[in-house]
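Worked problem 6 (solution included).
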Amino acid sequence: MNPLPAAGRTPTTISQVMDLVLSDPGRPRLTWYGDEGERVELSGAVLQNWVSKTVNLLVEEFDAAPGTVVTLDLPAHWRGVLWALAAWRCGATVELVGDSPAAGGDVVVTSRPAAWAEVLSGPGAADLVAVALPALARSFDGDLPPGAVDAAGAVMTYGDVIGWAPETDPTAVALDDGTGTGPVAFADLVPADGTPGARVLVDGARPLGVLLRELLAVWAAGGSVVLSSAATAAGLAADPARLDRLRESERITA
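Solution. The predicted structure is:
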């Protein structure tokens, strides 16, 4: 069990962070601004719901647990955030990759499954999950390699509450961001430097490993996130008036 920490104490585990997110279920916790004006808002309850479904898929379909490596090949995107949270919630290691597919861990979660078809061919290859990025996607748009799981349909078939998830090992590797800066253990995964209650604009052009930990810091401090895609972040930087309008409409404080 991971009860919420005492008042004034920062959550230190993913389970505690998610419990804090759910403590005010109707409050927006993750607002996404994608390319071409796409906007998706997830309240605490909806964010928890998505994470729970994805945890159930990882545990029941792939036996995800401490020692499992989930390779995340997704851009800065709200769906990528969900998959990282779900992997951490069941104690798995999140491995980030660059532009070129590598060997892959035990499970590869990607928005470009065709790029992994040859890398993951043959006996003993990793399981492959294809993630459609558009908010309203009901299935992946395109051909999938044999055996690949279409996340758009599969996630929705799992329960809204986590049925069972293994205990997290604090000493295990939670994040390997592929930058050579060294792995991050679960005990050190949740930063304690967030501004209490802040509504924070997060630039999606930043390295994904840095971005994910920034989101954890915001939520651990009881705040909420407005996350922009890399292209949207560049557009906002080039148009101060647009940025000011976004700050006002979303009540961004940091």
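Discussion: Helices lie at 14-22, 44-62, 78-89, 151-154, 208-220, 230-238, 240-249.
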